[in-house]
Amino acid sequence: MSLWRYANPSEFMRLSGAIQPWCWALAVIALGIGLIWGFFLTPDDYQQGATVKILFIHVPAALIAINAWLMMLVASLIWFIRRHHVSALAARAAAPVGAVMTVIALLTGAIWGQPMWGTWWAWDPRLTSFFILFLFYLGYIALWAAMDEPDKAADLTSVLCLVGSVFALLSRYAVYFWSQGLHQGASLSMDRESHVDNAFYLPLLFSIAGFILLFVSLVLLRTRTEVRLRRLRALQDLEARA
Amino acid sequence: MKAALAVLAREFRLALRSGGGAGLGIAFFVMLVPLVPFGIGPDPDRLAPVAPGTLWIGALLASLLSLDRLFQADSEDGTLDILALSPLPLEGLVALKALAHWMTTGLPLVAVAPALGLTLSLPGPAYPWLVASLAAGTPALSFLGAIGAALTVGIRRGGLLLSLLVLPLYVPTLIFGARAVVAAAGGQDPLPAFLLLSGLSLFILALAPFAAAQALRVQLR
């Protein structure tokens, strides 16, 4: 019994069909708790007032935006090495979700930045590297859309994902060389003591869990659609040949 | 070695004879730079600060311009299949083609950049660093472009897609390259930026052919 069993599309469809409703339900519950608690039951910040509460969308969206690309990288590597079609389709399915999360992080950041920094946009390293990440998502999605042959498209987008990962990381450090930042430090971290106050910490964790579950649900849904689309194409080809 | 020289000679001949378009990049560069004063005004005090960035962005766009033909023409007439069957490894072939692209488009840009710098009233001490940073950075642009060109070989009207794929990859090179010139123009030490640019460029020269060759192998399958 190994994990690779679920690389079989039928096994994947069976398992993902079974866990998908639970993912959606848990996502709704976690998001409900996190956002309602965060928006209505936490105190205002002593400097930022109520604007601080956009944190409960901004931070999880930014987290997903980066980790969606990471997930695409892993899925692309699995496709490269073991050539499981579900993996390639999952990478394809995650890209638009990641791109939208990047846009949400940038937009909520602008809405937050306007009253706090006095500007909607600054060429701050973090903002800039997110903008570059968004461009990488666009290129990746456009390359998938431009190709007819699914296996070829999967191979080429995997190459792009690997190259893009290296350069997204390089750009992230290059922009520090080019501009000093306005953005505050990490809100959450595993290894440091300084993160947001406890009053915000727990609802933020719920909200992050909700975003992660939402991401998983969306990617499962989109991957299942891709698998069905692939099956439909195969059936149509059979019909045409008969 | 003989095969490598033959490929290089073929690339030069194709680029320099009629319809090769070797002069196109440099013509674009010479066209693009005067547009900046038209856009922001002829005042030298306003042109000088933007001169390094303008020259670097101009060189970057000019080098992007001819990339879509890098593998496309060879793929259309079947030459690419024959080249792939040659004793030369595909990685080497990609490196040679990117090198030829740099020598026919990148190198002329390096040569005319100081003259265009004069028109933008770039400060005196910046000229050697402009030439040095473009000479160190433009090979990286050609090699990164080879990845984009290899990814978009089979696509009709792939030019726009190519730009979308390649331009984000150019960001670190542009940052370090332009920063070296800006520092020199402002009287600061340009060496840190220049060394980072050179390191990045060598990194790209060493690894980009592998990525591009992998993409070409998929295209040839």
Annotation keywords:
heterodimer; A: 242 residues; mainly alpha; 6 helices; 78% helix; globular; B: 221 residues; 9 helices; 83% helix; elongated
Please tell me about this protein's structure.
- The complex is a heterodimer of chains A (242) and B (221).
- Chain A is mainly α and 242 residues long.
- Chain A has one domain.
- Chain A contains six helices and no strands.
- In chain A, helix 2 (55-82) packs across helix 6 and helix 3 packs antiparallel against helix 6 (198-241).
- The longest helix of chain A is centred in the C-terminal third of the chain and has 44 residues, at 198-241.
- Chain A is globular and about 70 Å long.
- The model of chain A has no long low-confidence stretch (mean pLDDT 87).
- Chain B is mainly alpha-helical.
- Chain B has one domain (20-220).
- Chain B has helices at 2-16, 22-40, 44-65, 69-76, 79-85, 90-119, 126-151, 159-185, 191-220.
- In chain B, helix 2 runs antiparallel to helix 3 (44-65), helix 2 (22-40) runs parallel beside helix 6 and helix 6 packs across helix 9 (191-220).
- The longest helix of chain B is centred in the middle third of the chain and has 30 residues, at 90-119.
- Chain B is elongated and about 55 Å long.
- Chains A and B meet through helix 4 and helix 5 of A and helix 8 and helix 9 of B.
